[in-house]
Amino acid sequence: MTICYHPKLNDHGQKVKLSHPHADGPPEAWLDAEHVATVTPDGWMPKAINGIPFSPWKDAPTTTAGWANAPGQDDNLIEPAFHASTGMKAAAGVVIEETDGRIWVIHPSNAFGGYKATFPKGTTEGGLPMQAVAIKEAFEESGLQVAITGFLMDVERTTSVCRYYRARRVGGTPAACGWESQAVSLVPKAKLLGILNRTVDHPLAKMVGAK
Q: How far apart are CA 151 and CA 140, in angstroms?
């Protein structure tokens, strides 16, 4: 049996073995808003869809200070106060909406945390603004450069409270996703609930039109 490794090393410089790797979906699915399109790390992608090119975000921030000022934050967005109970970590994530109505989801490597598919998210660090954390996690986990378009909701999980934003793709490519994701998919809203295997994500999906 062939052993499959993620093409990118983890944060400790180690190879990540993928026990049940995904495969790229049919190329034509990217151009059909009624179908699920899937790409694996370094997989094939069309040059663009919906008028927005797919190209690696080469000048993405690489420092905490850089991420604090990452493009795509909405300084005029009105958000409710954030509250996390004692002992709970603060986190931020995004639901990325494509202009054809589909939603981007990541497939965590080896279904980490029991998630076969979910939305990009991660805990806050280095005093980064919530929006900056969401943009950073979107890039690291999906390879996409996004711009915040709105506030969705705060979700309490087992060890964290995560603030979720709506976002749109403005650049990047899912073929450049980091080691935490073994694939990235673009999913029609009608199929979203069936792909998100953890019900904690379902309220978010319904807020963007999943049924």
A: 21
Is 168 within 8 Å of 99 (Cβ atoms)? yes
**CATH code, 22-73+85-207:** 3.90.79.10
Span 115-154, pLDDT tens digits: 999 999 999 988 999 999 999 999 999 999 999 999 999 9
- Structural domain spans, the chain: 22-73+85-207
Q: How far apart are CA 155 and CA 205, in angstroms?
A: 12
Taking the C-alpha atoms of residue 210 and residue 57, their distance in angstroms, rounded to an integer, is 29
Q: What token pair was written down for 54? A: 């797919």
The CA distance from 33 to 24, in Å, is 17
Cβ burial 53-64 (10 Å sphere, 16+ → b, else e):
ebeebeebbeee
Q: Are strands 48-49 and 37-39 parallel, antiparallel or unpaired?
A: unpaired
Model-wide pTM > 0.85: yes
